[in-house]
């Protein structure tokens, strides 16, 4: 699906050398810091390119996180807190607020920030796979799994890591649970789009397709709601994307529900539902234009150019015309003033975030190795002056992924099938 997905930028970070010569006192402690520096650098290099395999990204991120946790997990049971947690200052930008960057002396903040970047990589890898001319079944499964994996990582960050942070952070940063909620809902919705595309292509029952479309629209509604209390200048573009998708999938739900109602000889209700589908589709088209011109971070999706989007409008209108004809010739039913209430629950195909398995602590972190770190020799943090400018970071130079503008060669226009 070329340009079907909105993607926010990766978080930028300042280099960390892990060179604390006074703190690391022997070969084992120096190796821990050396391995941490190497794995962090390698991971950051991988994250800018969505063409890498999931296996290499997962292996490298697990290596780094297994080492990083030794800076904040309790290793000595006699200490209330890991003595190394605050020895390093980590500086990161935010996906919605590129600058100024945020600096925190907290190893958990590093884990939060890097994990968010890893989750974002999965979403970009999924978009890269979906952008091919004709993704095959295995690639469609990978898109589905990547989006569920990303949702699971965001959920882990929100529920497990963020509550452990020492500092509180401003509204709209990536530590804001509203931002993380939006990521979780969007990733889950985009995974469910794959399921819906599959159901349409295989011509499953109109009732099941309508229910899946409705559930997908609800996920985008939840994502939009999570962002609704943030400053429009920060989250406006992202919200427009969620809104255009929720209107599109609501139109899809009303359209397929209309077919179900017609099959049940409820032609009057079907007509009113299809009228609502036309209205929602027209609104989605308008929101596509507003989204394209909205200010904010992130790559700009172009769903209105995609065959799946373009085909729904004519299908809805043809189905409405068919219902109007049959009602005039056969049913003579009154068309309701209000559209049918969509209380649809899908029995199959519902998506949930995949539970994230945090890697175990690296075996280098033994109690003996930990005891050899001497934090009394750590450099003291520099005192900030009143006229110091807030830190800033250059945006990450992400590798561009070519997108196909070719229409898929199938019936539905859903390439993820």
UniProtKB/TrEMBL annotation:
Segments forming domain BRO1: 1-417
InterPro entries in alphabetical order: BRO1_dom, BRO1_sf, BROX
Gene3D superfamilies xrefs: alix/aip1 like domains (1.25.40.280)
PROSITE patterns membership: BRO1
One Pfam assignment: BRO1
Biased composition (Basic and acidic residues): 376-409
Annotated region described as Disordered, given as residue ranges: 376-417
Family, as annotated: Belongs to the BROX family.
Protein name: BRO1 domain-containing protein
Organism: Batillaria attramentaria
